[in-house]
Amino acid sequence: MAKVKIVADSTCDLPISIIKNLDIEIIPANVIFDDQIFSHYDISNDEFYQRLEKGEMSKTGVPAPKVFKTAFDNALKTSDEAIVLTLSKKLSAMFSTASLVIKNFFDERVTIVDSETVTLEMGLITYLAARQAKDGASKQEILQNIHDFLIPNSQLIGVVDTLKFLKKSGRISTISWLIGSVLSIKPIVHIEDGVIKSPGKARGKKHALEIIETVAKKIVENKKSDSIMVGHSHDLERALEFEKLIKELPDAPTDILVGEIGPVVGTHLGPGAIGFAWIGDYEDDWLK
Question: How far apart are CA 1 and CA 100, in angstroms?
Fold first, then answer.
C-alpha cells in the first residue's frame, strides 16, 4: 500500500496520462449547460468547446458532498494517508465543501491544502506533489514542500483570446467588455494571492502571442524547477508551438507538460487561451 495519495479537484487540468501514471484521485467538478449538469467525467473537452463555439453558454458548480467523500474513501483504499489539493478558496467553494466533508467523516489521515491557484498552476503543484508521493516521501515531507516551496514559488501567466466569457461569468464589467472588444484587447492573466488578475493587456492576438513568447524566455531564465506546464483551451497546435519554443531555449527545462484547460476553467476563459505555469520568479515588467 502506498504511503500517501494525492487528491485534487478537476480544475487542476492535468492530462489523463499523468493522472493515471501518478495515481492521482480526482474530485470531478460540475459544468452546466441549460440546467443539465455534467460531471468532469461526463463531457469531453472537445464536446465542451464545440458547444461554446456553437454559441451555447455554460456555468460551473461544486459537486455534492458525497462526491468528495467517495474520492477520499477511494484514496484511503490504496494508501495510508491523503493530501487534498483544491483550487483557491477565493475562487470557489470547493475548499470549504471538502473541508466540511473531512471534518465530518475523516480523521487526520486526510489533510486539505488550498493551492491558492487554479488550472495549470494548480496542475503543476499537484503533479510535483504526486511525483514526490510516488517516490515514497512521507506526508509531512510532501506538505512541507507544498507549503514552503511549491505554493510560494508557483506562477501562471496566460492570454485570453476573447473577453466574451469573462464578461458572461461576471469577471469583468460590461463597459470593460465593450471597450476591449472594440479595441481587440487580449487580457494577460496572472494569479496573485489566490485571485486572477490582469497585469497587462495586448492589442490583438499577434501582440499577445509576442508577449507570451517574451515571457517564455524569462520563465526559463528564472525557473526554480525543471518542470513547466504549457496549457491551452482548445488550441493544441499553438501550445505545441510554445513547447517547441521552450525546448529550443538555452538551459531549457527537461520536463515540459502540455495540457488542455478543461470545462470548468474553460467556462470563464473560453476557447483560444494559452499560458504557462512554472516554479520560479515572476515580474510584471516582463510584460512591457
Answer: 27
DSSP string, 28-82: --EEEETTEEEETTTS-HHHHHHHHHTT--EEEEPPPHHHHHHHHHHHHHSEEEE
Q: Residue 28: which domain range?
A: 2-152
Grid cell listed for 64: 455534492
Whether residue 143 sits in one domain with residue 56 = yes
What end-to-end distance do the CA atoms of the chain give, in Å? 51
Domain boundary pick from 152, 179, 201: 152
CB 243 within 8 A of CB 256: yes
Q: What is the mean pLDDT of residues 243-250?
A: 94
Cα 258 from chain centroid (whole Å): 12
Whole-angstrom Cα Rg for the chain: 18
255 Cβ contact partners less than 8 Å away, ≥ 6 residues apart = 226, 227, 228
The one-letter amino acid at 282: Y
- Taking the mean position of all CA atoms in its chain, how far away is CA 78? 26
The predicted-structure confidence for 111-137, as pLDDT tens digits, reads as follows: 999 999 999 999 999 999 999 999 999
Asked if residue 165 and residue 139 are part of one domain, the reply reads no
Q: What is the model's pTM?
A: 0.94
Say how far apart CA 3 and CA 81 lie, in whole Å.
6
The verdict on 183 and 163 lying in the same domain is yes
Q: Given this model, what pLDDT does residue 268 score?
A: 87
**Rounded to an integer, what distance in angstroms lies between the CA atom of residue 122 and that of residue 151?**
9
pLDDT digit string, tens, across residues 41-76: 899 999 999 999 999 999 999 999 999 999 999 999
Range 37-41 contact pairs with CB under 8 angstroms and sequence separation of 24 or more: 37/61, 38/263, 39/63, 39/67, 40/10, 40/262, 40/263, 40/264
